[in-house]
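User: Hand in any protein.

Assistant:
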Amino acid sequence: MDHSFFSKVKPCLITKSFVPENKETPIHFIANDIIGRKLFYRRNHFPYPHFTSSFYFLPISGSVNSPRTFSLQEIYSLPAKTIKVVLECAGNKRELFEPKVFGEQWGKGAMSQGIWKGVSLRTLLQYTGLMNSAREFVFEGYDYGQRPGSSQSISFSRSLPLKKALDPDTIIAYEYNDQPLPFKHGFPLRLIVPGWYGMASVKWLKKLTVIDHEFNGPFQADDYVYYPDKEIDTGKFSVTTMNVNSTIQFPLNMQLLRTGVYDIKGIAWTGEGNITKVEISLDDGQTWDLCRYTSASEKNSWVSWSYKWEVQKKGEYTLQSRATDSHGNVQPKKPLWNRKGYGFNAIDRIKVKVE
Protein backbone atom coordinates (compact mmCIF):
# COMPACT_ATOMS: atom_id res chain seq x y z
CA MET A 1 0.00 0.00 0.00
CA ASP A 2 1.23 3.47 -0.86
CA HIS A 3 1.81 5.66 2.22
CA SER A 4 3.23 8.58 0.25
CA PHE A 5 0.67 10.82 1.95
CA PHE A 6 3.22 11.04 4.80
CA SER A 7 5.35 13.25 2.57
CA LYS A 8 2.45 15.25 1.11
CA VAL A 9 0.45 16.34 4.13
CA LYS A 10 1.39 19.40 6.11
CA PRO A 11 0.67 18.53 9.73
CA CYS A 12 0.62 21.13 12.47
CA LEU A 13 1.21 21.18 16.22
CA ILE A 14 -1.67 20.01 18.42
CA THR A 15 -2.61 22.69 20.94
CA LYS A 16 -3.08 21.70 24.58
CA SER A 17 -2.96 25.20 26.11
CA PHE A 18 -2.20 28.73 24.91
CA VAL A 19 -0.71 30.40 28.00
CA PRO A 20 1.63 28.88 28.81
CA GLU A 21 1.98 27.48 25.31
CA ASN A 22 1.89 23.69 25.29
CA LYS A 23 1.61 21.87 21.98
CA GLU A 24 2.18 18.31 20.80
CA THR A 25 4.13 17.07 17.82
CA PRO A 26 1.79 15.28 15.35
CA ILE A 27 3.86 12.16 15.96
CA HIS A 28 1.63 9.89 13.89
CA PHE A 29 2.34 11.91 10.76
CA ILE A 30 6.10 12.21 11.16
CA ALA A 31 8.05 10.13 8.64
CA ASN A 32 11.57 11.39 9.40
CA ASP A 33 13.99 10.96 12.29
CA ILE A 34 14.58 14.71 12.48
CA ILE A 35 11.74 17.01 13.54
CA GLY A 36 11.83 20.53 12.15
CA ARG A 37 11.54 23.41 14.61
CA LYS A 38 7.95 24.21 13.55
CA LEU A 39 6.76 20.73 14.58
CA PHE A 40 8.91 20.30 17.69
CA TYR A 41 6.65 19.93 20.71
CA ARG A 42 6.40 22.88 23.10
CA ARG A 43 6.27 22.45 26.86
CA ASN A 44 6.22 25.51 29.07
CA HIS A 45 5.35 26.18 32.69
CA PHE A 46 5.24 29.96 32.31
CA PRO A 47 4.80 32.55 29.54
CA TYR A 48 7.80 33.06 27.27
CA PRO A 49 10.53 35.21 28.86
CA HIS A 50 11.39 38.73 27.74
CA PHE A 51 15.01 39.69 27.25
CA THR A 52 15.76 43.32 28.04
CA SER A 53 19.19 43.34 26.45
CA SER A 54 20.84 41.97 23.34
CA PHE A 55 23.94 41.25 25.41
CA TYR A 56 23.95 37.76 26.84
CA PHE A 57 26.22 36.13 29.39
CA LEU A 58 26.18 32.83 31.27
CA PRO A 59 27.61 33.00 34.80
CA ILE A 60 28.90 29.91 36.60
CA SER A 61 29.35 30.28 40.34
CA GLY A 62 29.04 28.47 43.65
CA SER A 63 31.29 25.55 44.60
CA VAL A 64 33.83 26.22 41.86
CA ASN A 65 37.45 27.27 42.16
CA SER A 66 37.14 30.21 39.79
CA PRO A 67 33.68 31.68 39.19
CA ARG A 68 33.38 32.91 35.64
CA THR A 69 30.94 34.56 33.28
CA PHE A 70 30.98 33.38 29.68
CA SER A 71 29.87 35.51 26.76
CA LEU A 72 28.06 33.92 23.84
CA GLN A 73 31.06 34.56 21.66
CA GLU A 74 33.31 32.67 24.08
CA ILE A 75 30.92 29.73 24.14
CA TYR A 76 30.72 29.69 20.33
CA SER A 77 34.52 29.60 20.13
CA LEU A 78 34.92 26.51 22.32
CA PRO A 79 35.13 22.96 20.91
CA ALA A 80 31.61 21.96 19.90
CA LYS A 81 29.70 18.71 20.19
CA THR A 82 26.82 17.64 17.94
CA ILE A 83 24.37 14.94 19.02
CA LYS A 84 21.03 13.54 17.86
CA VAL A 85 18.71 13.39 20.85
CA VAL A 86 15.08 12.51 21.48
CA LEU A 87 13.42 14.76 24.05
CA GLU A 88 10.26 13.48 25.72
CA CYS A 89 8.07 15.31 28.19
CA ALA A 90 7.68 13.32 31.41
CA GLY A 91 3.92 13.71 30.95
CA ASN A 92 3.87 12.17 27.47
CA LYS A 93 0.86 9.82 27.12
CA ARG A 94 -0.62 11.11 30.40
CA GLU A 95 -4.14 10.89 29.00
CA LEU A 96 -3.76 7.10 28.82
CA PHE A 97 -3.44 6.55 32.57
CA GLU A 98 -6.26 4.66 34.31
CA PRO A 99 -7.50 5.88 36.71
CA LYS A 100 -7.16 9.32 35.12
CA VAL A 101 -4.75 11.84 36.60
CA PHE A 102 -4.84 15.62 36.67
CA GLY A 103 -2.45 17.70 34.57
CA GLU A 104 -1.90 18.53 30.91
CA GLN A 105 -3.62 15.69 29.05
CA TRP A 106 -0.82 14.88 26.64
CA GLY A 107 -1.41 12.27 23.98
CA LYS A 108 1.50 10.50 22.31
CA GLY A 109 3.17 13.57 20.79
CA ALA A 110 4.87 15.31 23.72
CA MET A 111 8.19 14.26 22.24
CA SER A 112 10.45 15.18 19.33
CA GLN A 113 13.93 14.50 18.02
CA GLY A 114 16.62 16.52 16.32
CA ILE A 115 20.29 17.41 16.11
CA TRP A 116 21.67 19.69 18.81
CA LYS A 117 25.01 21.48 18.72
CA GLY A 118 26.70 23.07 21.68
CA VAL A 119 29.46 22.83 24.26
CA SER A 120 29.79 20.00 26.77
CA LEU A 121 29.24 21.30 30.26
CA ARG A 122 32.45 19.63 31.32
CA THR A 123 34.31 21.80 28.78
CA LEU A 124 33.07 24.97 30.51
CA LEU A 125 34.02 23.53 33.88
CA GLN A 126 37.61 23.21 32.75
CA TYR A 127 37.75 26.99 33.12
CA THR A 128 36.13 27.14 36.55
CA GLY A 129 37.20 23.94 38.25
CA LEU A 130 35.14 22.21 40.92
CA MET A 131 35.52 22.21 44.67
CA ASN A 132 35.63 18.85 46.43
CA SER A 133 32.36 19.79 48.11
CA ALA A 134 30.48 20.08 44.78
CA ARG A 135 27.39 17.88 44.75
CA GLU A 136 24.84 19.20 42.27
CA PHE A 137 24.55 21.68 39.41
CA VAL A 138 21.54 24.01 39.48
CA PHE A 139 20.33 25.43 36.16
CA GLU A 140 18.01 28.43 36.25
CA GLY A 141 16.05 29.65 33.24
CA TYR A 142 14.81 33.12 32.38
CA ASP A 143 11.22 31.87 32.30
CA TYR A 144 9.30 32.64 35.49
CA GLY A 145 5.83 32.97 36.90
CA GLN A 146 3.48 31.62 39.54
CA ARG A 147 2.92 27.94 40.10
CA PRO A 148 -0.71 26.82 40.64
CA GLY A 149 -1.70 27.49 44.22
CA SER A 150 1.14 29.94 44.86
CA SER A 151 1.22 33.74 44.81
CA GLN A 152 5.01 33.91 44.60
CA SER A 153 6.81 34.21 41.26
CA ILE A 154 9.71 31.86 40.71
CA SER A 155 12.04 30.91 37.87
CA PHE A 156 12.10 27.46 36.38
CA SER A 157 15.10 25.75 37.97
CA ARG A 158 16.36 22.18 38.01
CA SER A 159 19.51 20.41 39.17
CA LEU A 160 21.67 17.56 37.93
CA PRO A 161 23.88 15.28 40.01
CA LEU A 162 27.63 15.46 39.42
CA LYS A 163 27.84 12.32 37.30
CA LYS A 164 25.10 13.30 34.86
CA ALA A 165 26.27 16.91 34.59
CA LEU A 166 29.79 15.77 33.70
CA ASP A 167 28.64 13.27 31.07
CA PRO A 168 30.28 14.34 27.77
CA ASP A 169 26.86 14.28 26.08
CA THR A 170 25.32 16.81 28.49
CA ILE A 171 25.66 20.02 26.51
CA ILE A 172 24.83 23.70 26.55
CA ALA A 173 23.18 23.94 23.13
CA TYR A 174 23.02 26.95 20.80
CA GLU A 175 21.99 25.29 17.51
CA TYR A 176 19.18 22.98 16.44
CA ASN A 177 19.30 21.19 13.07
CA ASP A 178 22.19 23.38 11.86
CA GLN A 179 20.29 26.58 12.62
CA PRO A 180 20.43 28.97 15.58
CA LEU A 181 18.38 27.66 18.49
CA PRO A 182 14.77 28.83 18.02
CA PHE A 183 13.56 31.26 20.65
CA LYS A 184 10.62 29.06 21.63
CA HIS A 185 13.02 26.22 22.32
CA GLY A 186 15.46 28.10 24.51
CA PHE A 187 17.43 30.69 22.51
CA PRO A 188 20.14 31.68 23.05
CA LEU A 189 21.26 28.74 25.24
CA ARG A 190 19.53 25.69 26.64
CA LEU A 191 20.67 22.60 28.44
CA ILE A 192 20.34 19.24 26.68
CA VAL A 193 20.40 16.18 28.95
CA PRO A 194 20.24 13.04 26.78
CA GLY A 195 18.44 10.08 28.30
CA TRP A 196 16.46 12.10 30.85
CA TYR A 197 12.95 13.39 30.46
CA GLY A 198 12.64 16.85 28.93
CA MET A 199 12.15 18.80 32.17
CA ALA A 200 15.89 18.38 32.81
CA SER A 201 16.83 20.23 29.60
CA VAL A 202 16.30 23.74 31.00
CA LYS A 203 15.62 26.45 28.38
CA TRP A 204 16.73 30.11 28.25
CA LEU A 205 19.65 29.51 30.60
CA LYS A 206 20.17 32.40 32.99
CA LYS A 207 22.84 31.01 35.29
CA LEU A 208 24.49 27.86 36.56
CA THR A 209 25.25 27.41 40.25
CA VAL A 210 27.24 24.52 41.71
CA ILE A 211 26.00 23.60 45.19
CA ASP A 212 27.22 21.36 48.02
CA HIS A 213 23.79 20.08 49.05
CA GLU A 214 20.62 18.61 47.60
CA PHE A 215 18.54 21.03 45.55
CA ASN A 216 14.92 21.22 46.68
CA GLY A 217 13.28 23.65 44.27
CA PRO A 218 9.55 23.02 43.63
CA PHE A 219 10.14 21.68 40.10
CA GLN A 220 12.32 19.00 41.64
CA ALA A 221 11.03 18.35 45.14
CA ASP A 222 7.29 18.64 44.41
CA ASP A 223 6.81 18.34 40.65
CA TYR A 224 8.56 15.74 38.52
CA VAL A 225 8.33 13.25 41.35
CA TYR A 226 6.67 9.83 41.11
CA TYR A 227 3.97 9.50 43.79
CA PRO A 228 2.71 5.88 43.51
CA ASP A 229 0.00 6.47 46.12
CA LYS A 230 -2.96 8.76 45.47
CA GLU A 231 -3.11 10.21 48.98
CA ILE A 232 0.25 9.88 50.72
CA ASP A 233 3.86 10.54 49.70
CA THR A 234 5.28 7.21 50.85
CA GLY A 235 7.45 5.59 48.19
CA LYS A 236 7.99 8.75 46.16
CA PHE A 237 11.08 9.07 43.94
CA SER A 238 12.44 11.51 41.36
CA VAL A 239 11.62 11.50 37.67
CA THR A 240 14.91 11.18 35.78
CA THR A 241 15.70 8.62 33.04
CA MET A 242 13.22 8.03 30.22
CA ASN A 243 11.46 4.67 30.32
CA VAL A 244 11.71 2.25 27.41
CA ASN A 245 8.75 3.00 25.15
CA SER A 246 7.21 2.66 21.70
CA THR A 247 4.43 4.20 19.64
CA ILE A 248 2.51 2.83 16.67
CA GLN A 249 2.32 5.64 14.11
CA PHE A 250 0.38 3.81 11.41
CA PRO A 251 -2.36 2.72 11.34
CA LEU A 252 -4.17 5.21 13.55
CA ASN A 253 -6.21 4.15 16.52
CA MET A 254 -9.82 3.25 15.56
CA GLN A 255 -8.99 3.49 11.84
CA LEU A 256 -11.08 1.71 9.24
CA LEU A 257 -9.05 -0.44 6.81
CA ARG A 258 -9.74 -2.71 3.90
CA THR A 259 -8.28 -6.15 3.40
CA GLY A 260 -4.79 -6.05 1.88
CA VAL A 261 -1.15 -5.55 2.78
CA TYR A 262 -0.07 -2.80 5.18
CA ASP A 263 3.21 -1.61 6.61
CA ILE A 264 2.61 -1.09 10.31
CA LYS A 265 5.03 1.67 11.33
CA GLY A 266 6.26 3.18 14.54
CA ILE A 267 9.12 4.35 16.72
CA ALA A 268 10.77 3.05 19.89
CA TRP A 269 13.16 4.74 22.32
CA THR A 270 14.75 4.47 25.74
CA GLY A 271 16.77 6.53 28.19
CA GLU A 272 19.33 3.80 28.82
CA GLY A 273 21.50 2.23 26.12
CA ASN A 274 19.64 1.59 22.88
CA ILE A 275 16.68 -0.36 21.56
CA THR A 276 17.53 -4.01 20.86
CA LYS A 277 14.13 -5.42 19.93
CA VAL A 278 10.66 -4.26 18.87
CA GLU A 279 7.82 -6.75 18.71
CA ILE A 280 4.32 -6.49 17.29
CA SER A 281 1.17 -8.35 18.26
CA LEU A 282 -1.83 -8.54 15.95
CA ASP A 283 -4.04 -10.51 18.35
CA ASP A 284 -4.16 -8.40 21.53
CA GLY A 285 -0.91 -9.77 22.96
CA GLN A 286 -1.46 -13.50 22.49
CA THR A 287 1.45 -13.86 20.05
CA TRP A 288 4.36 -11.60 19.11
CA ASP A 289 6.49 -11.18 15.97
CA LEU A 290 9.72 -9.23 15.48
CA CYS A 291 9.65 -5.93 13.64
CA ARG A 292 12.41 -4.73 11.35
CA TYR A 293 14.30 -1.50 11.88
CA THR A 294 14.02 1.16 9.21
CA SER A 295 16.59 3.40 10.91
CA ALA A 296 19.70 2.73 12.99
CA SER A 297 19.30 1.88 16.68
CA GLU A 298 21.47 4.48 18.38
CA LYS A 299 21.98 5.75 21.88
CA ASN A 300 19.92 8.87 22.71
CA SER A 301 17.65 8.62 19.65
CA TRP A 302 14.59 6.69 18.60
CA VAL A 303 14.57 3.81 16.16
CA SER A 304 11.96 3.62 13.41
CA TRP A 305 10.46 0.19 12.80
CA SER A 306 7.94 -1.49 10.52
CA TYR A 307 6.07 -4.76 10.07
CA LYS A 308 4.37 -6.03 6.92
CA TRP A 309 0.84 -7.11 7.72
CA GLU A 310 -1.21 -9.07 5.20
CA VAL A 311 -4.80 -9.08 6.38
CA GLN A 312 -7.48 -10.94 4.43
CA LYS A 313 -10.04 -11.52 7.16
CA LYS A 314 -12.50 -8.79 8.04
CA GLY A 315 -13.10 -7.91 11.65
CA GLU A 316 -11.72 -5.94 14.59
CA TYR A 317 -8.02 -6.21 15.53
CA THR A 318 -6.02 -5.04 18.51
CA LEU A 319 -2.43 -4.16 17.58
CA GLN A 320 0.30 -3.80 20.20
CA SER A 321 3.97 -2.83 20.11
CA ARG A 322 6.58 -3.74 22.72
CA ALA A 323 10.19 -2.52 22.89
CA THR A 324 13.22 -3.90 24.74
CA ASP A 325 16.48 -2.03 25.38
CA SER A 326 20.11 -3.08 25.87
CA HIS A 327 19.74 -2.89 29.67
CA GLY A 328 17.00 -5.50 29.59
CA ASN A 329 14.16 -3.03 30.18
CA VAL A 330 10.91 -4.15 28.54
CA GLN A 331 7.66 -2.25 28.16
CA PRO A 332 5.20 -3.55 30.76
CA LYS A 333 1.55 -4.47 30.22
CA LYS A 334 0.56 -1.74 32.66
CA PRO A 335 2.43 1.48 33.52
CA LEU A 336 3.48 2.50 37.00
CA TRP A 337 0.45 4.53 38.01
CA ASN A 338 1.41 7.75 39.79
CA ARG A 339 -0.80 10.64 40.77
CA LYS A 340 1.00 13.26 38.67
CA GLY A 341 0.99 11.10 35.58
CA TYR A 342 4.66 10.77 34.66
CA GLY A 343 6.58 8.16 32.70
CA PHE A 344 3.74 6.28 30.97
CA ASN A 345 5.37 3.43 29.06
CA ALA A 346 2.91 0.57 28.87
CA ILE A 347 2.84 -1.55 25.72
CA ASP A 348 1.33 0.64 22.99
CA ARG A 349 -2.11 -0.52 21.98
CA ILE A 350 -4.49 0.50 19.19
CA LYS A 351 -7.61 -0.93 17.62
CA VAL A 352 -8.50 -1.09 13.92
CA LYS A 353 -11.40 -2.48 11.97
CA VAL A 354 -10.96 -4.24 8.62
CA GLU A 355 -14.03 -4.04 6.38
In short: The mean pLDDT is 96. The chain has two domains: 14-238, 245-354. Residues 14-238 form a domain with the Sulfite Oxidase; Chain A, domain 2 fold (CATH 3.90.420.10).
